[in-house]
């Protein structure tokens, strides 16, 4: 029976085995899926790769394609990144710059480079120089200065073709600072990784590590200074760069400012200056001490504003709350200074009017006394003596004594009149006292309303 069956198949096939061989060849030409490849890359003909094109065009020397992007059948090269923050070196709000020290770990597969460890005494990995293999052309969009840390001289290459590269970088990047709540602000600075020339169809970036582990590692090794590291997150985006669609891997570094030093050296002193200005209402307005004191306090607040101007950026979208705080305190002190000037003007006007009245009264009294003291006999003797051409020494001495007595009398009259009228302030003095009382009440209310407005602005920003 078996012999008859074989004979039957031989007759059906026409006495030839060519169909069987053709089916086997077609199966060999079909792509084989590699289950060990996490990229899901299929193994096609070796001519369907970038390295085959370079060899065909003789763009490589001595058939050395190791520096060409590894790919199979026009596949995407998947590069997995892991970024660790080692230190926050500087945050410059004035220049809108963020300086950090980071470690960048990248890994990818090159399936054209592999070996069997059992054939090489169980050598599972090697460390070739970084310039002998292809490395991804990664850049950071926000970087404004070149990395000054030397490039790592070696790579890590596993037996299965997986390549590891570690890069240490001092990144000086631009960062849009939000200083509305300075010095209680929280900043978010981004580091966006992308390829320089490769599109997303050739090179794909992907985050590989757990964010919680990255944050714990950074907090353990980082020295916390003015800025406290809060969080490190990542996101993947696709951007259109000059008509070329690329993968963008964005790492966002969140940090919070330590505000205790700014509270002690800036916010509290300005509040103390405001309290001194309020206490200066107890100083008498009759002299110039109150005016000089208020001007000194106002200049101190001006110096604090100049210091603040050196810290905050000039290109801020909104006026920071601390600037509103300084402007409000400066405005209240300016109104207090103007009120003091008005008070001194009113008191000076009243004092001038009182002095004019006293001088006029003294002149009238002096005329009355002079006319009363002159008797007829004295007038006759003066008329007789008027014939003499030269005054005597006694007459000159008497005139001097009489002038001195008049001055003493004038001084005593002013003192006595001041004591009598001490409890009777003038009209402008009464007006000045009323104005001062009303202004103090409105000044205190203005301070309270100003602080409430600042508090409401703060809470409104938190809700937004």
From TrEMBL:
GO cellular component: postsynaptic membrane
Keyword terms of this UniProt record: Cell membrane, Disulfide bond, Glycoprotein, Ion channel, Ion transport, Ligand-gated ion channel, Membrane, Postsynaptic cell membrane, Receptor, Signal, Synapse, Transmembrane, Transmembrane helix, Transport
InterPro entries the record matches: LGIC_TM_5-HT3, Neur_chan_lig-bd, Neur_chan_lig-bd_sf, Neur_channel, Neuro-gated_channel_TM_sf, Neuro_actylchol_rec, Neurotrans-gated_channel_TM, Neurotransmitter_ion_chnl_CS
GO molecular function: extracellular ligand-gated monoatomic ion channel activity; transmembrane signaling receptor activity
Domain Neurotransmitter-gated ion-channel transmembrane: 284-377
Catalysed reaction equations from the record: K(+)(in) = K(+)(out); Ca(2+)(in) = Ca(2+)(out); Na(+)(in) = Na(+)(out)
Topology term for the membrane: Multi-pass membrane protein
Signal sequence, start to end: 1-17
Keyword presence, Cell cycle: no
Chain segments annotated as transmembrane: 260-279, 291-308, 320-347, 438-458
Subcellular location: Postsynaptic cell membrane
Chain intervals for the UniProt region annotation (Disordered): 357-391
Domain Neurotransmitter-gated ion-channel ligand-binding stretches: 64-258
Entry similarity comment: Belongs to the ligand-gated ion channel (TC 1.A.9) family.
Function: Forms serotonin (5-hydroxytryptamine/5-HT3)-activated cation-selective channel complexes, which when activated cause fast, depolarizing responses in neurons.
Protein name: 5-hydroxytryptamine receptor 3A-like
């Amino acid at each position: 029976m078996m012999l008859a069956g074989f004979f039957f198949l031989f007759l059906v096939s026409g006495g030839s085995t060519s169909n069987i061989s053709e089916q086997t060849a077609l199966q060999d030409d079909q792509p084989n899926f590699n289950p060990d490849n996490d990229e899901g890359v299929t193994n096609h003909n070796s001519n369907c790769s970038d390295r085959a094109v370079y060899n065909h065009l003789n763009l490589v020397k001595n058939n050395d394609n190791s520096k060409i992007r590894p790919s199979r059948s026009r596949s995407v090269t998947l590069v997995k990144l892991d970024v660790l923050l080692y230190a926050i070196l500087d945050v410059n709000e004035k220049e809108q710059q963020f300086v950090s020290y980071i470690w960048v770990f990248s890994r990818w597969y090159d399936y054209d480079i592999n070996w069997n460890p059992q054939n090489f005494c169980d050598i599972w990995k090697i460390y070739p120089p970084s310039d002998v293999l292809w490395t991804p052309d990664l850049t950071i969009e926000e970087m404004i200065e070149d990395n000054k840390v030397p490039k790592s001289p070696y790579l890590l290459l596993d037996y299965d073709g997986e390549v590891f590269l570690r890069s240490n970088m001092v990144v000086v990047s631009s960062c849009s600072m939000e200083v509305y709540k300075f010095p209680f602000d929280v900043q978010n600075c981004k580091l966006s990784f992308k390829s320089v020339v490769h599109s997303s169809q050739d090179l794909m970036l992907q985050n590989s590590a757990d964010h919680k582990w990255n944050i714990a590692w950074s907090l353990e090794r980082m020295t916390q200074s003015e800025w406290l590291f809060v969080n490190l997150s990542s996101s993947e985006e696709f951007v259109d760069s000059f008509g070329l669609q690329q993968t963008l891997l964005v790492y966002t570094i969140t940090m919070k400012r330590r505000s205790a030093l700014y509270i002690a050296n800036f916010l509290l002193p300005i509040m103390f200056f405001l309290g001194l200005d309020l206490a200066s209402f107890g100083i008498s307005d009759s002299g110039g001490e109150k005016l000089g004191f208020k001007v000194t306090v106002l200049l101190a607040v001006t110096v604090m504003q100049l210091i603040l101007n050196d810290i905050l950026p000039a290109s801020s979208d909104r006026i920071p709350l601390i600037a509103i705080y300084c402007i409000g305190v400066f405005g209240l002190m300016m109104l207090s200074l103007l009120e003091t000037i008005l008070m001194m003007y009113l008191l000076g006007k009243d004092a001038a009017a009182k002095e004019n009245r006293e001088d006029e009264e003294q002149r009238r009294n002096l005329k009355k006394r002079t006319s009363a003291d002159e008797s007829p006999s004295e007038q006759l003797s003066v008329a007789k003596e008027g014939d003499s051409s030269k005054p005597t020494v006694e007459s000159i001495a008497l005139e001097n004594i009489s002038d001195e007595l008049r001055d003493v009398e004038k001084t005593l009259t002013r003192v006595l009149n001041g004591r009598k009228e001490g409890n009777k302030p003038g009209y402008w003095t009464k007006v000045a006292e009323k104005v001062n009382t009303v202004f103090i009440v409105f000044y205190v209310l203005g301070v309270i309303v100003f602080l409430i407005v600042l508090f409401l602005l703060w809470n409104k920003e938190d809700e937004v």
